[in-house]
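The records we work with from here on pair a chain with its fold. Taken together, the tokens spell out the fold as the letters spell out the chain. The record below shows the convention in full.
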Amino acid sequence: MTPISCIAVKLKLPEIVSQLCALAKTITFSSKAFIHFMLNVLNEALEPYLNQKEITLKAKDRIQILIQQINTEFTRSDYLKYFKSISSPAASRDLASAVKLKLIEKLGDKRNTKYKKQ
């Protein structure tokens, strides 16, 4: 699981557990047993990820991850979809820094800007 998906799981888990507990109160005994069983299964499966410290990636780390994952041209919008926790200005700074360090090449200008690996 990537650091991004670990964070997503941490954020969604309380909501999922709450919904399952609310559901358990409204259904028959046999269903309650199944829901409690599944909650325990989920807890055991996710426990290693929930106990991990949150990882804060630096701009250069994010660029390196993206370069390893994408083999085609990409836009700032693609970068933001991959790293959902950063702002649009942060994405612009990351990409400008990567161009300056010659990690990626900038193609086009303004709205038509695309990037590709060097």
Notes: The chain has a mean pLDDT of 81. The beta strands are 104-107, 114-117. The radius of gyration is 20 Å.
